[in-house]
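Following up on my earlier thread - several people asked me to post the actual chain instead of describing it. Fair enough. Here it is, all 237 residues.
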Amino acid sequence: MRNIYRGVLVTLMLASVAFAKSDSDRKKQEERLQNAGQVMSEILGMPESIPQNLLQKAKCVVVLPSVKKAAFIVGGSYGRGAMVCRTGQDFMGPWGAPTMIALEGASVGFQLGAEATDFVFLIMNGKGANSLLHSKVKIGADVSAAAGPVGRAAEADTDVALRSELLAYSRARGLFAGISLEGSTLRPDGEANEALYGHKVNAEEVVTGTTTPTPEAARKLVTVLERASAVRTTKSS
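Reply from S.P.:
Thanks for posting it. Predicted structure:
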């Protein structure tokens, strides 16, 4: 009988530890979503920001808040954040639920300063969006990329921007600018999605499904995008 009680106690303890870890992992992803919303709000409020016409045309937006240089030069770590896509056919609808995303690549580390850097990527067409929803993609190889134009520079760089599948931006030390991240990779973060939504779910299911609710922690991010670019004006492939 004593062994039975001991076995039950061990089982309960293990269950408690697993629950605590699950809760901790979920809160970590929720914090990332909240930070992503704050970053997007601050960037769009800057005088020299992402041109609205480009945001209007974007299929998806990736936000990676507070990526630190050390994350890329210490043993295979990476930056983490969220991707929000437009819902509906050809990504033409309102902004939907976020899927978690990871940025990897040693080349990134040498472009960052000592302080944390925020990254924002615009995914400009369906090919780029679908590639990123299904697998790891190498920036500049699997998806064409360019440094995103900012403010007044937008008009001069519009042709380059519209030929690219991904436009990359960074913010560090209060400065916001386009940046080249060729050679780095982006991939869906399945473990983070599982922690956030409480069950295994892939990026495509989150973005294209109709049953995945937007987490409360992502409300600010989605609301900011809706206010800045509620309706797409052109259709691209």
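The first strand starts at residue 60 and ends at 67. That should answer part of your original question.
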